[in-house]
Amino acid sequence: MILKKKTWPKFFKEIKDGKKNFEVRLADWKCKPGDLLILREWDPKTEKYTGRKIGKKVTYVLKTKGLKFFSKKDIGKYGYQIIGFR
Length: 86
Description:
Elements: E1 2-7, H1 9-16, E2 36-43, E3 48-57, H2 72-78
Domain DUF3850: 6-65
Organism: Candidatus Woesebacteria bacterium RBG_16_42_24
InterPro entries: DUF3850, PUA-like_sf
């Protein structure tokens, strides 16, 4: 499946440069390994797409709803950090 999503210029550049190899998204849409994620650069200042886009193959999806690793108190205090690695 081909999925298209916005990404802000800072993150687009980091993905393009190979520094960022993950995405953090609200899980209000379906995504699975093997899907093609098309990230379209969106400028929040102009509220328009820049015309640049990059495609990435989804290799792993972690959904956090229902995970019982952390207490609600600790989540509220610290939040989550998503760690990418190779």
